What we know:
Blueprint: H1 2-34, H2 38-51, E1 55-57, H3 68-75, H4 85-94, H5 100-111, H6 123-130, H7 134-147, H8 158-169, H9 174-188, H10 192-199, H11 203-214, E2 235-240, E3 243-248, E4 256-258, H12 260-263, H13 273-310, H14 312-317, H15 327-334, H16 338-347, E5 349-352, E6 355-358, E7 366-369, E8 376-377, H17 378-390, H18 400-409, E9 412-413, H19 416-425, H20 431-434
Parallel strand pairs: 2-5
Antiparallel strand pairs: 1-4, 2-3, 5-6, 7-8, 7-9
Helix pairs in contact: 1-13, 4-5, 5-6, 5-7, 6-7, 7-8, 8-9, 9-10, 9-11, 10-11, 13-15, 13-16, 15-16, 18-19
Amino acid sequence: MGAKGDVRMCPSLGLEQVQHIQLTTEVRQGIEVMGMPILELRALLSNKAMENPFLRSAESPFECRFPHEEFESIASRTPEKALSLEEEILAQLNMDLRDEMDIRIAQELISGIDEQGYLRLDTDIVADALGTNPNRVERVLKKMQTECAPAGIGARSLQERLIAQLQATGDDDLLVRRIIENHLPDLADGRILQIASALGTTASCVQHVLERIRRLDPHPAACFEHDGPTTFPEVIVIKSGTTWSFKLRKGLLPQILLDEGYASMLDDPAIDKRTAAKMREMLREAKGLIRAVDLRKAAIIAISDAVINHQSQFFDRGPAGLRPLAMADVAQMTGLSEPTVCRVANSVTLDTPKGVLDLRYFFHSGVGSRSASEDVSSLAVKQAIKELVGAEDKHDPLSDGKLVDMLAARGMSVSRRTVNKYRTALGILSCAKRRRYDE
């Protein structure tokens, strides 16, 4: 009896395992769709409509267009294709270089430039490889650094890059060169008085040099970097009377439907079992995909409604109006799981009166306030720090301690350590490094 009982259980266990695998596949597909940016989902639906006979698109994949009036408002945000650094620089040099050897030197030098625009080849090695004089290689390199745009391409150090940019604009002089070559770390640390003493000049002169250097570009190759894929906002934030609401942008996705006619073929007894099994699997995939898209849309509506209602003051006041908001808070408001909120927040973009913003932008931790019932958004504190520093006396900049006091006057109770952390994250230097010494 025991053996027979074990045998009877085997098919049942096998069936349960198959069902579990099928459920996992459907869940996985739903998870992927939930966190998929709109352009990726658009491509997925178009491809599936062509691959899966149980799916049909209400329009041809080539007819699914972004609405004309909405596309134009977005088009200006679409980045142009980045230029090739090698092609651009070589094209500029070819306009001036006539000697074949100089052109070969330029090609060799360009091949040794990294993505940051720095030369990672030794000019002596280039000279040996081409059988030419090292001085000739240096002359071609200097031409590249000072006569090509952007200036400073092909520099071997930050100091060389900055000097090349000054030379390209005719703004080079002995004091600037000496400070760049010998005192750049001190300048970065705000040691204006020490530099002035070492060079026998005034703090005001050093301050003037600092301002000139700040106008230079330490990353001139950045303009050749490729931008990420274009993002199209799915949610449009609108104002209805005195309240903020939203609508979903239509036409971003092809409308995918279940082909009922093809599905009815499964009832045909002439279809062999293997083909029928494969067709049923494709039917399950088709139904699962349609359901996943519907669930994604419902989640976007629920989460957008919760976020926009909670952060309504932002649309009137800007970052200062942001309130603390966590993924767990929205999960509780909507009845969705926290991972679902996170996936949607990371993939959906909003078109707002304040610009195009990721949904994730509206989630911020809270810091203390004088009100025991409600904290202040960390972004609101950062915005306040930017405003206070922007309005400070540059000859007597605000210390972190003073910022703590001024934030407290605005009802923001934060520690000096928090101010230091937020100031650093904003790229704002310490008060010693912000101090000016103009006479």
